Every structure is written in C-alpha cells, then in structure tokens.
Amino acid sequence: MVNPLVTVLLPVYNCERYVRRAVKSILHQSYSNMEIIATDDGSTDRSRDVLRQCAKEDSRIRVIERENRGLIATLNEGLGLARTDLIARMDSDDIAYPSRIAKQVAAFQNNPRLALSGCYYDLIFSSDRVAPIRNVPFSDPEDLRILSLFFCVQKHPTVMFRKSSIPADVLHYDADYPHAEDFDLFGRIAAVADTAIIPEPLLAYREHAGSVSNRHADLQARTHLRIVARNLLAEGVPVDVSALHGSLPPDPVQAGLMGRLIKDLEHEALNRHNGKEAFRFGVANLFIFIFAMLRQRGSPTALATYLDVTGGWEKIRRFDRIAAKAGRSNESMAWMSFWLVDAMLAMQSRGNSTPARKAVSGWQQLL
C-alpha cells in the first residue's frame, strides 16, 4: 500500500497545558492517512475536555476515557485497539515535526525487515525554545541490538512499530519494568528483528519537573539496572552482575562493586569480535548512568569510590571532577558544587537553544 493507515497512540494524564499542541502537531503532518487513539488515563485536570474539543474538530481522533490505570496498561490497551500494521507513539507534551510520520513510513517501505523505527530529536526548553542534543551515532541493526543491552536506544515518543514484523508475544509493555518499560520492550524487539534510527530530528521532546525521570528517579534507576543485568546474562557476557541488584543509593562497598563491573565490561569489549565499538559505547553509557545516579543520590564517598575503581576521574567533566574530589573531605561542599555545575550547564544549554518559531516549521500553527 502506497499510503498505509497509521495509528498514533497518545496516552494522556493531567496534561491540559500541552496536549492540544501535541495533537495539532500530529494533525498537521504532511502525511494525513492516520488515526489518533488518545486515551485519557483518569486525568484530574481539563485534559479530557481538551481532547473532546480536538475530536470535534477532526474525525481522525478517537478519545478513550476511563479511570487511572497507569501508562503501561494504557499503552497495552492502545496496541490492542490499533487496527493498523504501523503504530506510532506520541507523548502528550511533545511536538512532532511536520514530516515525522511520512519519513518513518518511508523507512518501513524501504526495509521490509524493519520492525521498529525511531528518530533523532530536539529538546524543548520552557515553552518556546529548542536545542539539538547528542544522539546515538550508530545505525546498523546489530549495533543497535548491542546498545539495547545497556540503555534505551530509542526515545519512547519517537518510535513507530510494524506489528506484523514483531512476534505477538514480544509486542507488549511489561508491568514488571515500571518507568523503564520502553527500555525493556525495545530491547526485546531488537533481539528478534531489525530496528533503525532516522538520523534527523523529527520530534521535540519536553523534559520538566513533572517528567517520569524526575518524579520516579529511584524506581526508574532500579528498573534500568535490573534490565541491564538480565540482558547481560541473556547475552552470555561473562561478568558478575550482582552489584546491579543492590539497594539504592549504593553505599561505598556496592559502588566499588559497580565500578569493578564496569572494568570487567571494558575488558570484555576489547575481546569482542563483532560489534566492538557498539559494546564499548554501551559500557560507557552504563558508566555515565551509574555516575549520574551516585552524583544525584549517592554519598560523595560512594561516588569517589566508584571513580577510583573505574579509573573514571578523567572521563567526567572538569567541574564535576572538582566537586567529586571535594566530597572526600566535605560532603556539603560537594553538594553545593554539583548544584552550581547543574545551574551552569542549564544556562549553557539554554544559550545553545533557538527560538522554536525559527527552528521548527509550522510552530506558529500549533499555538
């Protein structure tokens, strides 16, 4: 079929401020043959009213209203309701660029083996500025599979699935992996089918204080590390993953064990014959993930222990290095230094951003 029907799954929970823009960004796509399944997951604000009004304005929108059941249940229900082979994801506070759906459909038409496609994305600052971010520098399906052992390669709201290319027992979100259900699912898909990333920003992603990564950071970190441990065992990587199952935040002993795991994985990367660079990149990502977790919620002593064992002092930013070293003798000084580093980086990121009306085609139509 030249222009197959595409279903866009849009879960909504208490997002009245942004959801209309998100919906309009889908409706204004250059590709028009689609339906939107917008599920209001028991919102307590005016999100439901906004969706009803959107549905009155465009018959391609189907609104589902019910009590709160959570994101995983909402997504699985959406997968079951979708009548199409191609199913795209969208978050209720993000903006899809006008060519997103068309370019993802083309990716599937050009590769009959493709099961999942994501894309590069930009980051939204406040409500009117966007900035490019560093995306994954790999495109080969086997490299993406290897990367998926360590982290969620695709940003969740950028993906599109081809249902017929994914085994039925694979295409579901697993409630055993809360707040990292995308990491789990995309890795399972990459293990059995081709995945791809379109190397072009086709979406603007909004991260704010209400984001899952901020509200449920501890549970998300535990789930993430549990998935990594499972993946490494399934891959047959000869390392001890027990440190990834410990309590969070890690104490200095566990931080040291995590550091030892990183060193073992770096050694394993050197011995691999296939996907060596992707494996090395994945290990580097895990190093940074654990570093960030310790930096934000661990003790300065545990952080310093981790950096000692990994030899990672030179792998982190200079200002982070100064703050972490200060924590050996003065924890309060370390926390203050990290706070200042974060404030400085936030200012720097905003300085690198561009007004959305200049960077994004059709932005004014979404207001």
TrEMBL record:
* Keyword match Glycosyltransferase: yes
Which keywords accompany this UniProt record? Answer: Glycosyltransferase, Transferase
- The protein here is known as Glycosyltransferase
**Pfam families assigned:** Glycos_transf_2
Q: Domain named Glycosyltransferase 2-like: which ranges?
A: 7-122
- Identify its protein family: Belongs to the glycosyltransferase 2 family.
Q: Show the taxonomic lineage.
A: Bacteria, Pseudomonadati, Pseudomonadota, Alphaproteobacteria, Sphingomonadales
Q: Which GO terms describe its molecular function?
A: glycosyltransferase activity
State the organism of origin: Croceicoccus marinus
Task: Identify the domain of life.
Answer: Bacteria
